[in-house]
């Protein structure tokens, strides 16, 4: 499915906010953004979607440039951002950021492109473009979708026939398209090939999708404690793969 068609049907602007379970990914990612971003950093948000992180950063006073490939998302982002003077929005492709000079940005988010890139060649091109436009010593966030957790959620939540289907390949590799999936080990290899230095590697939403009904039924006090537990465990190596969304934080050396 072509991305414009996908995102004309998929309600991306509500993905991180529709309930308590879905907000865990947003809260977790913001924790790490706040940890690593510096005052006066110039920010690039590649694959910005409908601008959730762009808007949050702009409201905090950062100069943000957003790039998004899917036209429906660009329109929604423009409507959400309105007339904010510190935001520039481009309709563009993460594989070609030629509109930007080398080392133009201090802080780079790449929170969506790897969700849709299947080949190692395209993944490396995406990563290397983000690296090229990031200043030396700058921070880059790369989000990806965990193959292993998708195997679990497809089996347990969405497709009762998944284990009898042709939707996965040998070694339990879930078939790509339109979303693409990686293991923790594959992401580590990709970052190593691209010469990036690890700063952090965290499970953005953990068990939130799998346990969504139970999380959404929690009291506010229980929810706060569950969030604290998630924050406590989200960088543990034994927990990384069992999260639908994972983020690798890299330093451009």
Describe the structure.
By secondary structure, this protein is an alpha/beta fold. The protein is globular, with a radius of gyration of 18 Å. The mean pLDDT is 96. Strands 3-2-1-4-5-9-8 form a 7-stranded mixed sheet, with helices on both faces. The protein has helices at residues 3-9, 20-36, 52-59, 71-81, 120-133, 147-158, 184-193, 212-216, 220-233, and strands spanning 42-46, 63-68, 87-91, 105-110, 134-145, 168-169, 173-174, 197-203, 245-251. It contains 9 helices and 9 strands. The chain has a single domain (3-146, 180-251), classed as 3-Layer(aba) Sandwich (Rossmann fold). The longest helix has 17 residues, at 20-36.
CATH topology: Rossmann fold
Number of strands: 9
Helix content: 25-40%
Overall geometry: globular
Which runs of at least 5 residues are low in confidence (pLDDT < 50)?
none
CATH architecture: 3-Layer(aba) Sandwich
**How large is the count of helical segments?**
9
Q: CATH homologous superfamily?
A: Vaccinia Virus protein VP39
**Beta-strand percentage range:** 15-25%
CATH class: Alpha Beta
Order of helices and strands: HHEHEHEEHEHEEHEHHE
How many domain modules? Answer: 1
């Amino acid at each position: 499915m072509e991305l414009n068609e996908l995102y004309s049907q998929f309600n991306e602007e509500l993905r991180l906010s529709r309930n308590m379970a879905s907000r865990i990914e947003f809260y977790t990612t913001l924790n790490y953004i706040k940890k690593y971003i510096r005052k006066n950093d110039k920010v690039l948000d590649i694959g910005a979607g409908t601008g959730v992180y762009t808007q949050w950063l702009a409201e905090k006073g950062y100069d943000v440039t957003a790039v998004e490939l899917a036209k429906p998302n660009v329109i929604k982002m423009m409507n959400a951002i309105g007339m904010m003077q510190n935001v520039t929005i481009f309709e563009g492709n993460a594989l070609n950021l030629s509109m930007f000079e080398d080392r133009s940005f201090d802080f780079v988010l790449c929170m969506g492109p790897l969700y849709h890139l299947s080949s190692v060649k395209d993944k490396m091109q995406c990563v290397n473009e983000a690296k090229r436009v990031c200043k030396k010593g700058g921070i880059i966030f790369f989000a990806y979708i965990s193959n292993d957790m998708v195997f679990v959620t497809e089996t347990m939540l969405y497709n009762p026939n998944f284990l009898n289907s042709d939707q996965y390949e040998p070694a339990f590799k879930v078939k790509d398209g339109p979303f693409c999936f990686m293991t923790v080990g594959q992401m580590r290899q990709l970052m190593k090939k691209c010469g990036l230095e690890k700063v952090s590697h965290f499970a953005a939403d953990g068990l939130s999708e799998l346990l969504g009904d139970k999380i959404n039924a929690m009291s506010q006090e229980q929810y706060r404690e569950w969030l604290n537990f998630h924050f406590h465990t989200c960088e543990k190596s034994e927990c990384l793969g069992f999260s639908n969304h994972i983020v690798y934080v890299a330093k451009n050396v």
